[in-house]
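User: I'm putting together notes for a lab meeting next week and I want to include a structural view of one of the chains we've been expressing. I don't have a solved structure, so I'd like a prediction I can at least talk through. The sequence is below, exactly as it appears in our construct file.
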Amino acid sequence: MSLLQKIINAHGMTGMEIPGVNLGKTYKMSDVESWIKEGKYASFFDFQRSLGFGKQRSDYGKLKQQLDQVAVFGFNSGRYDINLIKKDLFAVIGTDNIKSVIKNPSYMCIATSDMNMLNITNYVPAGTSYDKYLTTYLGGCKCDDKTRCVCGLGKGLFPYEYITAFDVLSQTTIPPKSAFDSKLRGTSITSDDYERVKFVWDYYEMSIKDLLIWYNNLDVVPFTKAIKAQRELFKRFDLDMFADGVSLPGLSEKLMYQTCFNNLQYPDKKPANAFQFPTKRMADYKSQDAKAKRKFALTLEHVNTLLQKQKYLCGLCYCQLTADTASADRINNNLATSTVISWSAALSATPLETTCRLRGSGIRSCSSSTRIDWSTRSTRRRRLFSLR
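Assistant: Thanks for the context. Below is the predicted structure for the 388-residue chain, given as structure tokens.
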């Protein structure tokens, strides 16, 4: 059964989506099947082609992709684990229908039509450890006695380098404390950690195989619970971390665009008082360019003409300019001072944090309500935020 048929069975369709039917009724698959029997449609495909979704029709393809793809999460898997297994992994899943996002030297995402492999470390601040991640979203282990902890929220311990053959997994005697040391990393477990291993070993009557299962479960079970808790956090903002982004910056950007224009107040564009651009300031610019051996071609007449054309207002935010705050700037530091004007915090009583430097042509200043650092913004974002 197609995805659309499942949706119709579950939710029905309104008359606004089906041409020529009663607008005030919800229709199910039984209605569609009766229309096909009556000859109104040659087949379900013929019915589907007649639906009036307009631009929303593409949502079904996106929804189908999200339903078909199983999200596979790892913790710090993009840098080491995937690189280790990718040869065998790609041999199984193939490379014909595979897409990846690579941020050297790690994979941020590997997607096929059936699965989407993601790295949870891309959804948390850099340097976040696995234990810190669990503590953030699950609260961490709250057992008073950490040695006798059985809550399932603490990280397990396992003697990696002690396993030299499969037969070792059947061993029923607990390995010595030195077996948990790592020559590769140059680390040793503490006496308290070993006491915990001894308690768990006796409590569950373990073999080394059981210890491995216990260790893996502590890696996976609380991890899935923490992911669900983090996913619920983003759902509060109508975002699905499985589908709306492969990293925290991607989700944050979508969240930013949800709220950046809330309560936006447009300026009244009231003309400012006329003034002449200060002669001394222009002379200072000419002196600076002469010392830097840049040709100076800007004139007071040109600047004053621009001021008059813009009614002595900022070309971006329309706040009022004065003789104390208007300041010429240059588009290119290799060229002379040009007709780019910004609100100068050094020349005004306005605090530095309420002003910004703007690039573009014309006479401009910017108030704190529209403070944007254009020097780090792309042309696309300049257009997005422009109030012109």
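A couple of points you could mention at the meeting. Residues 130-259 form one domain. The beta strands are 13-14, 26-27, 70-74, 99-103, 106-111, 115-119, 326-329, 340-343, 362-363.

User: Perfect, that's what I needed.
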